[in-house]
Each structure stands twice: as C-alpha cells, then as structure tokens.
Design brief:
Oligomer: single chain
Strand order of the largest sheet: 1-2-3-4
Strand content: 15-25%
Helix content: 25-40%
Number of helices: 4
Order of helices and strands: EHEHEHEH
Length: 121
C-alpha cells in the first residue's frame, strides 16, 4: 500500500495522475504555522474525493508546550467542522501530528506530554 503526504508546498496536484500512479491514500496538511487553513487543503481534499482516494489530515506542529499543543488540536477540529470535512465520503477520520521541527529537539519527556495533550483533545 502506497500513500503520500502533501501540503501547499507541492502546489496544485493532478489527483487523477496520483490515483493512476498506484497511490492508495493521502495525508493532507490541514493548517499552517499561523493556524490558518493550508492554502491547498480544500483543493487537495476535493481532488482526493473526486478520485476516490481515502485521506486523513495532519498538522505539522511547532508546539513547545502542552497549551500550544491543545490550541493546535482544537484548531484542526475547528477546521474539520468549518469545512464539513467529517462529512466527506473519503475522509478516514484520522488526524496526524507531525512532530519534527528542530525547536522540538531535546524536549525529552516534555515532547511526550505535548503529544499526549494533542491526543486528549
């Protein structure tokens, strides 16, 4: 099973070509650093839906505290509700937290707490 993760950095995607290439799922970036919707999210979710590609969403987080993690998670939930993503047939109802920013290195157990806080929202 092959999948891809995409965001506005990939610009406009030809989802028909993606489907024909053998990709069977996608993970779409839903919010940006400023907590606004990713510039390509609506186009990407529509493209997945039109091409019958199951998708979930992710948040590339910059959280350094549990409080910021909670804000991020709540923002993702708000965007899913605002754009009625929960009602889209190919939405897998999964939210991923992408934790890899250099500012998070060395946080140790605090990073575990940040992830747990995100999960608890």
């Amino acid at each position: 099973m092959k999948g891809i993760d995409v965001s506005s950095y990939q610009k406009t995607i030809d989802w028909t070509k993606v489907k024909n290439s053998g990709i069977s799922f996608a993970i779409l970036k839903i919010i940006r650093k400023d907590l606004a919707i990713d510039n390509q999210f609506l186009s990407n979710s529509t493209g997945c839906n039109l091409n019958n590609i199951p998708f979930s969403v992710y948040n590339y987080t910059y959280a350094l505290t549990r409080e910021k993690s909670k804000i991020d998670a709540n923002t993702v939930i708000e965007m899913i509700k605002k754009y009625n993503i929960d009602g889209v047939k190919n939405f897998k109802k999964e939210v991923w937290m992408d934790v890899e920013h250099e500012t998070q290195m060395g946080l140790g157990h605090t990073l575990i707490d940040i992830v747990k806080e995100y999960q608890n929202v």
